[in-house]
Amino acid sequence: MKNIRFKFALILVLAVVAAVLAYPREDVVLKKIGLKNAKLQVRQGLDLQGGAHLVYQADLSKTASGDRTTAVNGLVDVIQRRVNPAGTSEINVQQSGSDRVIVELPGVTNLTDAINTIGKTAQLTFLEQTSAQVEPIATDLTGKDFKSATADIDTTTSQPIISFEFKSDAVKKFADLTTRINQEQGRLVIMLDQDILFNGTVSQPITDGHGQMQGFNDIQVAKKTAVLLNAGALPVPISLVEQRTVGATLGQESVQKSLVAGMIGLLIVALFMLLYYRLAGLVAVSALAIYTVLTLTIYKLSVFTPYAITLTLAGIAGFILSIGMAVDANILIFERMKEEVRTGKSLTASIEAGFERAWTSIRDSNVSTLITCVILYVFGTSALIKGFAVTLGLGVVISMFTAVVVSRTFLRMLIRTKVGHKGHWYALPQEDIA
Asked: Which residue among 312, 375, 400, 405 is least packed, with the fewest CB closer than 10 Å?
């Protein structure tokens, strides 16, 4: 009995914590307990918060057939690093077909700037010009020799600069170049495509592989340039072949309609369970409520992990479907429990046997669903399909916990009460079977 009470108390604490975190304005609650500036938010996909959907065509005409897959994979990687340099936003970049790349930019307001950033070739070249040369000549240094670039404000001049560092195998090449330019009193010219990033003298040889670029109009320009430098050049030329925008208002309407549909579904399911299974139905509804807040909490907490969940309309559909599966597990258990009662067993024994006998069916059906979710996630080409697979799979896992652990613990506590051992409160024929 003590063990059951401990589990019951632990579940209640978990439910309360999850309810606080799942609350839409959880920041208000968290502030009241001393956690200021604490706010969790479910990531929303393009179809919910609005944004842009771009499709790019890669020009593979000059790429050998055996290298095309590598070129497109590299293209996806470069675009990903350009539009999502920190790797923490819900921006989605994925290959479509053999030569197309889809870029989804939720919440983006400056679409023109995003298109320019994505489509820029970003070929970095280093040129050397001496007093005897009319035009600068190319060197053997390129953007591939770059290790990192960081935009900052020069503390001396208060002007935006980019500090950069070369890879270890290019340090000597850069040192030789700057030494030669310094000795011949020449000029170093650094160009990004057709734009000159730096054109000036070298006051002293740079032997540690570090350097600075100056002359940017503002810090934002410097930051965008640093992103391009860090992302690298596009391996093949691309062209924008499709552009579609989703308004935030339309996305908000979709969220509202989905929430209404979900609430109606929850109420109908709860009403059915209460009318048909009575006290057992109340247990199922309580477990379902805990399931809902646990799921929403995991959605929010996932933003602190590398596998943050981005909620889309398809994801909401997966979540609502998993609610039905959570109730289905309880129905299997209760029906098994009824069968055990009909054989003459006590209510306590029937509950235990019901869970034991229903577990095989629950396990097999949920495992088959999880396998389907894995297949959809691995082989699905659309972010909507992947989102559906993630939310449904997560819901299945949590539903097994709430059905097997939460419902069982609640029933064990319930049958020890004065009302809980009466058979008719479970829609059973016996008056007292405990």
From this structure: 375
Given this model, what pLDDT does residue 370 score? 93
The residue whose two tokens read 């790019």 is 56
Asked whether residue 432 carries a pLDDT value surpassing 50, the answer given is no
The answer to whether residues 387 and 45 touch, using CB atoms and an 8 Å cutoff, is yes
Q: Which residues of 250-269 are buried (b: 16+ CB within 10 A; e: fewer)?
A: ebeebbeebeeebeeebeeb
The pLDDT of residue 431 is above 50? no
Top mean-pLDDT range of 175-179, 262-266, 336-340, 426-430: 175-179
Average pLDDT of the residues in 347-365 = 86
CA gap 106, 245 in Å, rounded: 10
User: Which amino acid does the sequence have at 386?
Assistant: K
Which residue matches tokens 């479970």? 426
Residue 325 amino acid letter: M
pTM: 0.65
The phi and psi torsions of 233 (rounded to 5 degrees) equal -85, 155
Tell me how crowded residue 341 is: count the other CB atoms within 10 A of its CB.
Answer: 22
pLDDT interval class at 372 (50, 70, 90): very high
| 3-state helix/strand/coil string of the chain | CHHHHHHHHHHHHHHHHHHHHHCCCHHHHHHHCCCCCCCCCCEECHHHHCEEEEEEEECCCCCCHHHHHHHHHHHHHHHHHHHCCCCCCCCEEEEECCCEEEEEEECCCCHHHHHHHHHCCCCEEEEEECCCCCCCEEEEEEHHHEEEEEEEECCCCCCEEEEEEECHHHHHHHHHHHHHHHHCCCEEEEEECCEEEEEECCCCCCCCCEEEECCCCCHHHHHHHHHHHHHCCCCCCEEEEEEEEECHHHHHHHHHHHHHHHHHHHHHHHHHHHHHHCHHHHHHHHHHHHHHHHHHHHHHHHHHCCCCCEECHHHHHHHHHHHHHHHHHHHHHHHHHHHHHHCCCCHHHHHHHHHHHHHHHHHHHHHHHHHHHHHHHHHCCCHHHHHHHHHHHHHHHHHHHHHHHHHHHHHHHHCCCCCCCEHHHHCCCCCECC
Q: pLDDT (tens digit, 9 = 90+) per residue, 272-316?
A: 888 888 888 888 899 988 998 898 888 888 877 766 777 777 888
**What is the C-alpha to C-alpha distance for residues 71 and 364, in angstroms, rounded to an integer?**
42
* Beta-carbon contacts of residue 311 (< 8 Å; ≥ 6 apart): 42, 43, 44, 45, 48, 299, 387, 391
Residue with tokens 């609005």: 50
